[in-house]
Amino acid sequence: MAQRSGKITLYEGKHFTGRKLEVFGDCDNFQDRGFMNRVNSIRVESGAWVCFDHPDFRGQQFILEHGDYPDFFRWNSHSDHMGSCRPVGMHGEHFRLEIFEGCNFTGQCLEFLEDCPFLQSGGWAKNCINAIKVYGDGAACSPRSFGAEDFQVSSSLQSDGLEEATTKPATTQPPFLTAKL
């Protein structure tokens, strides 16, 4: 079973100033914890997180990994509005992810058994991904500095443990991939 844990600290001010909210698990509404929906900087102390610009895990998603984000431009947002967040499941020993060049799981295929910081270093020379097969609980794809939207692929496991998902082309640069079981 996927394990979801970590710590993220959200700050109202830029450069980690002002009021802060520390989160250790799913938080479906920042206002329920007495924190307004204005987030100008974030420190991810452990784990990987998916943050949403609206409460109840709705709206645009932002995938954040360990590190400091001193202003909202660093997580590719256009505003300081954020309403909910949750940790991304941590992968186990049986993780597997396949990416495909073509739609409907055709064309060049590359398999990942662990995190890969850059697709080019994993042998992917293409400029987009059109389909993903996820064996496990989910995958997070983060184009990061390339200006495209982050997205997360989640699955409820089928009896064979395989979930297929078709994605939109990511960017003109390969995205960063992390896959979780």
Describe this structure in words.
This protein has 181 residues and is an all-beta fold. It has two domains: 7-88, Gamma-B Crystallin, domain 1, CATH 2.60.20; 95-146 and 156-166, no CATH class. Helix content is 0%, strand content 43%. The chain has no helices and 14 strands. The protein has strands at residues 7-13, 17-23, 41-46, 49-54, 58-64, 67-69, 84-87, 96-102, 106-112, 131-135, 138-142, 151-154, 162-166, 176-180. The strands form four sheets. It has a four-stranded antiparallel β-sheet with strand order 2-1-3-6, with no helix packed on it. Strand 4 and strand 5 form a beta hairpin. The radius of gyration is 16 Å and the shape is elongated. The protein starts with 6 loop residues before the first strand and ends with a strand. Residues 142-181 have low confidence and may be disordered.
Layout of helices and strands, plus pairs?
Layout: E1 7-13, E2 17-23, E3 41-46, E4 49-54, E5 58-64, E6 67-69, E7 84-87, E8 96-102, E9 106-112, E10 131-135, E11 138-142, E12 151-154, E13 162-166, E14 176-180
Antiparallel strand pairs: 1-2, 1-3, 3-6, 4-5, 4-7, 8-9, 8-10, 10-13, 11-12, 11-14
GO molecular function, one term: structural constituent of eye lens
InterPro entries: Beta/Gamma-Crystallin, Beta/gamma_crystallin, G_crystallin-like
Region (Disordered): 158-181
